């Protein structure tokens, strides 16, 4: 009987099983074979993402560390269009996404070539992303973030003109810097909840139109002092700190001094419900 | 062994190799023969990188019943790896594979600079060195792919559990690598039954003691509301349960209406943070206080039943709470002790959650019905006038628990 009890106690104390998360590494690279344009879509559900210009001679490069129990890597290239899809996709019945990882967290590094004109769509889930887009030839940009912290940086000028940049954020912290370098004539932003900073520093010419809407949260506009700025604001229970702007007679428009004579113009349509909009000037 | 001795050995080894496997060596082109010989020399000669665990390079023969693996589409490396892993799970001597429009090799393999291979190529457990041209896809499993200067792959490249080293080669298609499944650096270890028991016991005991302390505090500073809520539980159990259910359903809509109402008043927007905090505190107080009232009621019923059986006990609220909380936590204790048992553990957990939810609903409903213990309407303390008959008053003692005030004689007339 004693032996039986000891055996039972031993069984009880040692019957644990090891459940390991199967992290895998995946990489995909394609050399540049003279593609002049590329429609690229990046989908990334969770983890950290770094996007940057690829080294010369590379059309794109992806390096992933991902949870193979929940996600599958995606690297599809259709040379006929040409169209590219990179990132991860959730496996069916994967049991949701893990937020905490004890060891190496899921991560992705993506490099995009600097020779082809890119029509770039980026869809982020619960990711922490740093997107360095300076130097990449972007003809159109669309970024959708979910519950994420995203930094978009244009540290170099876009070699080509960009027709539009669209940003939409759910419950997110989004910082976009160097929008002047993006050379996008139209910038759209639509946010749900969170804090968003749109920095228009950089070298830009002509007129840029910003259409921004935010439901609840803080929107910070960092505007170059030399530019002529006109802001049309439609607000509901929101605060607005129009530092250095002059209000129009009807009370719905704010303009910087010398707007008409400024070499560059930034026309802003703002719409927000709850929260605040702050204007900061940069030299 | 020195390099000069290795060089002296090389021709002899090559001759032996040719004699041992003449069918394989002589089956291909002269350049193939030389390459096979050189590969064997590299493997046999000490001082080279070849490991004794590496298989001897040879062509993986096809057979009628051999598994067929297509390398035409490499965009799904996971399924491809699964197929290769399943096919390679046999001793090398028994390994047979069919590669449509291609070939499979076991061990190190190289394509010479003057050589052009047509068709897909699978290299198992070896390094693929490419100096020449391959018109097809190249896949390695358990080895690296090295694309030397001048190499051309007119197709895709995939290294499963290996690396692709681009040393000047050109790939017209895509270069992919995929590692084998690796454990996370700090794998989570499912708790053993003993650790599960200890952790659960600690958690259950902690919650029990917290509730007990909260209950004692309530008895000390709010005994009357606690007793009124407890009496509401005993007197209006079903009503309290229904009200508790409705309360759970209406909590969020009520909160939403409150916030929206405050927003619409504009001036009330400033009050929203306070309202949120107060609402949350009231909710917690209602749920916890209600649960403690249920424990109080259960303890009181059990104690009085024991006293009716002749046991000498001290009927006080502290005892009621201890006894009641023990009853409420009994299912959790059972789960703590036997929760590690497969299936049954989950059932016990579900039962404990269900029982706790039921009791918490009753307590929450009682707290709502009694307005936090301030209203005695549902506590069973009022005796309706029609009950105040002479028989009732005559049979009811003037002192004691159920005693009520005897009405003055004038009022009965």
How is this structure best described in words?
The complex is a heterodimer of chains A (283) and B (413). With 283 residues, chain A is mainly beta. Chain A has helices spanning 2-14, 179-182; strands at 18-19, 22-31, 37-53, 58-67, 71-78, 83-90, 107-112, 117-132, 138-145, 149-153, 162-177, 184-199, 207-224, 228-235, 238-241, 245-247, 253-256, 265-282. Chain A has a 17-stranded mixed beta sheet that branches. The model of chain A is unreliable at 4-20 (pLDDT under 50). With 413 residues, chain B is α/β, with parallel strands linked by helices. Chain B is built from 12 helices and 16 strands. In chain B, helix 6 (223-235) packs across helix 10. Chain B is elongated. The N and C termini of chain B lie far apart (128 Å). The relative contact order of chain B is 0.07. Mean pLDDT of chain B is 80; it is low at 12-28, 41-50 and 183-188. Chain A binds chain B through residues 12-31, 33, 68, 72-73, 75-77, 101-104, 237, and chain B through 75, 77-78, 164, 170-195, 197, 263, 266, 269, 340. Strand 2 of chain A pairs antiparallel with strand 14 of chain B.
């Amino acid at each position: 009987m004693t032996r039986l009890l000891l055996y039972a106690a031993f069984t009880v104390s040692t019957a644990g099983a090891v459940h390991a998360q199967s992290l895998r590494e995946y990489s995909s690279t394609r050399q540049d074979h003279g593609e002049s344009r590329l429609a690229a879509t990046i989908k990334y559900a969770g983890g950290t993402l770094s996007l940057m210009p690829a080294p010369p001679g590379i059309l794109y490069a992806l390096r992933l560390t991902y949870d193979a129990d929940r996600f599958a890597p995606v690297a599809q290239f259709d040379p006929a269009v040409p169209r590219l899809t990179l990132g991860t996709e959730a496996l069916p019945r994967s049991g949701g996404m893990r937020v905490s990882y004890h060891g190496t967290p899921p991560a992705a590094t993506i490099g995009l070539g600097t020779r082809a004109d890119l029509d770039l769509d980026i869809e982020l889930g619960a990711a922490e992303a740093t997107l360095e887009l300076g130097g990449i030839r972007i003809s159109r940009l669309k970024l959708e973030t979910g519950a994420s912290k995203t930094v978009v940086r244009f540290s170099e000028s876009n070699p080509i003109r960009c027709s539009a940049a669209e940003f939409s954020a759910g419950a997110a912290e989004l910082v976009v810097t160097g929008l002047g370098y993006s050379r996008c004539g139209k910038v759209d932003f639509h946010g749900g909840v969170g804090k968003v900073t749109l920095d228009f520093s950089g070298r830009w010419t002509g007129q840029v139109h910003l259409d921004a809407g935010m439901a609840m949260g803080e929107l910070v506009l960092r505007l170059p002092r030399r530019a002529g700025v006109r802001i049309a604001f439609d607000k509901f229970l929101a605060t607005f700190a129009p530092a250095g702007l002059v209000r129009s007679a009807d009370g719905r428009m704010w303009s910087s001094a010398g707007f008409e004579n400024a070499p560059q113009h930034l026309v802003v349509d703002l719409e927000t419900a709850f929260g605040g909009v702050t204007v900061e000037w940069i030299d | 062994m020195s390099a000069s001795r290795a060089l002296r050995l090389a021709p002899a080894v090559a001759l032996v190799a040719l004699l041992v496997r003449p069918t394989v060596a002589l089956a291909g082109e002269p350049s193939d023969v030389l390459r096979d010989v050189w590969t064997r020399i590299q493997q046999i000669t000490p001082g080279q990188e070849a490991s004794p665990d590496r298989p001897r390079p040879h062509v993986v023969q096809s057979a009628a019943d051999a598994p067929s693996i297509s390398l035409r589409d490499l965009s799904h490396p996971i399924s491809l790896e699964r197929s290769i892993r399943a096919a390679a799970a046999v001793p090398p001597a028994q390994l047979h594979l069919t590669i449509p429009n291609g070939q499979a090799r076991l061990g190190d393999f190289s394509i010479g600079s003057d050589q052009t291979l047509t068709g897909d190529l699978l290299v198992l457990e070896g390094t693929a060195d490419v100096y020449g041209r391959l018109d097809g896809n190249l896949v390695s499993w358990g080895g690296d792919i090295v694309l030397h200067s001048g190499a051309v792959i007119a197709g895709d490249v995939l290294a499963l559990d290996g690396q692709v080293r681009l040393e000047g080669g050109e790939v017209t298609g895509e270069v992919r690598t995929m590692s084998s499944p690796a454990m996370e650096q700090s794998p989570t270890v499912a708790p053993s039954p003993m650790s599960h028991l200890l952790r659960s016991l600690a958690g259950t005991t902690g919650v029990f003691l917290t509730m007990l302390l909260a209950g004692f505090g309530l008895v000390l500073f709010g005994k009357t509301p606690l007793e009124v809520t407890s009496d509401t539980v005993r007197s209006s159990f079903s009503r309290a349960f229904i009200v508790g259910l409705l309360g759970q359903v209406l909590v969020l809509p009520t909160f939403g209406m409150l916030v929206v109402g405050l927003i619409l008043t504009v001036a009330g927007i400033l009050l929203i943070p306070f309202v949120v905090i107060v609402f949350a505190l009231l909710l917690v107080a209602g749920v916890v206080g209600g649960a403690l009232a249920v424990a109080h009621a259960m303890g009181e019923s059990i104690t009085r039943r024991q006293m009716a059986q002749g046991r000498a006990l001290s009927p006080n609220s502290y005892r009621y709470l201890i006894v009641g909380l023990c009853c409420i936590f009994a299912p959790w204790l059972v789960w703590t002790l036997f929760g590690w048992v497969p299936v049954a553990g989950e059932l016990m957990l579900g039962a404990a959650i269900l029982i706790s939810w039921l009791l918490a609903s009753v307590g929450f409903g009682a707290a709502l019905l009694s307005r936090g213990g301030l209203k005695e309407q549902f506590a069973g303390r009022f005796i309706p006038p029609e009950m105040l008959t002479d028989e009732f008053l005559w049979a009811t003692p003037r002192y004691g628990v159920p005693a009520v005030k005897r009405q003055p004689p004038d009022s009965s007339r």
